[in-house]
Design goal:
710 residues, alpha/beta, Rossmann fold, 4 domains, six-stranded parallel β-sheet, 21 strands, 45% helix, 16% strand
């Protein structure tokens, strides 16, 4: 029977906390109204009729708007913690700091140094804390409290202790489609990583379920709190493996009061490009390899398909000619000075004219000087059209699209026949870039450079004015080109990379450009890596970090998986890699994974039944994980099965499950997952460790199970 007295005590404690929470929210409403009044006053100042009033208006509206956004974002679950201290003091901890009308502290921002004891205190070292309480709220309403008694010897008589502890309570709750802040239940080793020094690179490692992702996101919020000017003005970039993952984490930082962070998947790092499609494994590995660096360099410097290979010009009895060899020599000269292709754009006409003038030798031709020759040729449509065709400003996306026609000549000796076949097949007419193409486009952006606006006067200024058609053409294309050409705004003050173990060398180069002068947070686990060549990846990462000091943290406790699920998954990890980082799972459910091996004719019927069973048994989300090649067909087959569950069930391939978690997971054809790439066993390890409560596999073969049981 339930303990009636304990329930009554809990309700009294909830009522006590509710009265305090009401006070904090009342003050929050006053702060919001004040910020709104600043917006109104700012707009009023814009009507004074002078430039100073407009500047004041913009500044006031901007700052007040930011404050309103932060207050609104932190509204839900604003107050989440309370500390009862040995000295009799009581502190409340929340998502942001709140003061009363006398500037006395009502609520301490969780990132403030004085709040660190909320996370650092333990029963072994209570640090002056007797009781730590976590408040769970829905909107402005306190719905439960969970207590940890850290110093029972010094607890006053009558102190009430409610619940089983905040962490264990949070672990048993159902998952939904988004990640939530764990600011109320951060553990000591997680807090140490969050509050690490801001300089250099903070490396957060650990196996599945240790909270690496959410700790890294809380670290981003912490950095913005401790040095807002630096990180807000320079920008914080958060990069994850997929669009599914970014949708999953997008609410975490706003819930912590931070709305100024840039979130991008690997397919969205380059402005103007959005990709969610992976290439087939062979093409993906080739495109991600460091061997692509030289290939892209050759592509950026070489003649483009369709460019003319010769030019002849009749000038006052002289026939002036530039053949393919001459044009190649001029190309080398233009690029040998260190200029990038598009930076040399303004110099190309001059080089061509010099080469042609050097051939002028006839008596009639020499009657006129060089200036006359320049004026004559630069007003001739034949020469103008040739320059336009021979050295046009190049867009990185256009060069990328031409690669199927030219990659064999650019990459001779770098790839074998099978890789070339896969590469060419991956560029299909009309197909948007894949996730693996995005770093190649970025490489081309930096190799090609931007077309500079001429500013210096020189002897060919008239030529530049006459040939202004090229500038106009660029202006006509500007909106389309800007996404792939502008590199001025690529840099950030902090770069956070999740699932870093999956990054290819080319992806590391792409991110390295954005973090050249930044501090970093890097999250990963080698046992979950989908990139097959670890040493090549290590070199690329070292180059991206440019010798920055590293602060390494290992998270050792698996809070996600039940011990039954993780004990099984860890056997897969031992096959996937040598000496995997295996954290300790902290809870048991009594539910062991179930493995079904069925006939091919029955497998679809069986997986449908498994999905229904799992979805009916859990309250939260369910993933059906399939080999890449089977995703479309199985999604279509399961459409009627998953429709009644109203978004709780989704079909994903192994790579798209990275960083996610679900109450239940059904894995379809595990052997096909292990066979589809060199990193197949690591992918299967990732898939199995997405489940928090129930795990079931369904397949027509059991080779993978036999290998585990050896």
């Amino acid at each position: 029977m339930p303990d009636v007295s304990a329930e009554r005590e809990a309700q009294l404690e909830i009522a006590t906390e509710q009265s305090y929470v009401d006070i904090v929210y009342a003050r929050l409403d006053e702060s919001t109204k004040f910020a709104q009044s600043m917006v109104d006053e700012g707009y009023a100042r814009g009507h004074v009729g002078n430039e100073g009033g407009l500047v004041e208006r913009d500044a006031m509206v901007f700052q007040a708007g930011k404050r309103i956004a932060a207050l609104n974002a932190a509204h839900d679950g604003l107050v989440f913690g309370r500390l009862d201290l040995l000295d009799g003091d009581r502190r409340y901890i929340g998502r942001i700091g709140v003061r009363d009308e006398n500037r006395e502290i009502l609520l301490i921002d969780w990132r403030a140094p004085v709040a660190s004891v909320f996370y650092q205190a333990t029963a072994k070292d209570p640090a002056g804390v007797i009781r730590r309480r976590v408040l769970r709220c829905s909107g402005e309403t306190v719905i439960s409290v969970e207590d940890d008694l850290l110093d029972g010897d010094n607890a006053p008589d009558g102190m009430v202790i409610v619940g089983e502890g905040a962490l264990l309570a949070s672990l048993s709750r159902a998952r939904d489609s988004t990640m939530h802040s764990v600011v109320a239940t951060i553990q000591k080793e997680q807090d140490e990583a969050i509050r690490a020094p801001s300089r250099g690179a903070t490396i957060i490692g650990g196996g599945p379920g240790t909270g690496k992702t959410v700790v890294a996101l809380h670290r981003a919020a912490y950095l913005l709190y401790t040095d807002r000017r630096r990180f807000e003005s320079g920008g914080v970039l958060v990069v994850g493996p997929s669009g599914v993952f970014m949708n999953y984490i997008e609410r975490v930082l706003p819930s912590l009061g931070e709305t100024s962070v840039t979130l991008r998947s690997l397919g969205e790092v380059v402005d103007g490009i959005k990709s969610g499609r992976h290439d087939e494994p062979i093409a993906a590995a080739a495109k991600g390899s460091a061997r692509m660096i030289a290939t892209m360099r050759n592509a950026a410097g070489a003649a483009q398909p369709g460019e003319p290979t010769a030019f002849s010009y009749f000038y006052r009895d002289d026939v002036l000619k530039l053949d393919a060899r001459d044009l190649q020599r001029l190309r080398r000269n233009l690029l040998s000075s260190g200029l990038k292709r598009n930076q040399a754009y303004a110099k190309a006409p001059q080089h061509l004219i010099e080469a042609l003038w050097a051939q002028v030798s006839g008596e009639r031709a020499l009657e006129k000087d060089k200036d006359y020759f320049v004026d004559e040729i630069t007003t001739d449509d034949k020469f103008v059209d040739f320059v336009e065709a021979w050295w046009p400003p190049l867009d990185a996306v256009e060069v990328w699209r031409s690669l199927p026609l030219t990659i064999k000549s650019y990459a001779s000796g770098s790839f074998d026949a099978k890789e070339f076949e896969a590469l060419v097949a991956s560029w299909q007419p009309g197909l948007a870039p894949s996730i693996q193409d995005v770093p190649l486009i970025d490489e081309l952006r930096y190799l090609l450079g931007e077309v500079p606006v001429p500013v210096e006067e020189d002897e060919y200024e008239q030529l530049k004015q006459v040939m202004s058609f090229e500038r106009r053409e660029l202006d006509d294309r500007e909106e389309r080109v800007r996404a792939t050409q502008s590199i001025d705004d690529d840099g950030f003050a902090h770069v956070l990379v999740d699932e870093a173990q999956d990054l290819s060398p080319m992806q590391w180069r792409m991110l390295g450009r954005r973090g050249r002068h930044a501090s970093w947070t890097i999250v990963g686990d080698a046992a979950q890596s989908s990139w097959p060549y670890a040493e090549e990846q290590r070199r690329a990462r070292a180059q991206a970090l440019e010798g920055k000091p590293e602060h390494v943290f290992r998270l050792s406790t698996n809070y996600r998986n039940s011990a039954e699920i993780y004990d099984f998954a860890s056997d897969v990890a031992r096959i996937a890699v040598d000496n995997p980082d295996l954290p300790d799972a902290v809870r048991r459910t009594g539910e062991s994974p179930v493995h079904d091996v069925v006939a091919p004719s029955e497998v679809l019927k069986h997986v449908s039944a498994a999905v229904r069973e799992i979805a009916d048994r859990v309250e939260g989300t369910v993933a059906v994980v399939v080999p890449v090649g089977a995703r479309a067909a199985l999604t279509a087959h399961l459409r009627e099965v998953i429709e009644p569950y109203e978004g709780r069930v989704q079909v994903l391939d192994g790579l798209d499950t990275k960083g996610l978690e679900f109450d239940g997971v059904v894995v379809y054809e595990p052997d096909a997952i292990t066979d589809e790439s060199p990193a197949g066993w690591r992918t299967l390890y990732v898939v199995l460790t997405r489940a928090t409560q129930l795990l079931r596999t369904v397949g027509t073969t059991d080779r993978w199970l036999m290998r585990i049981s050896r």
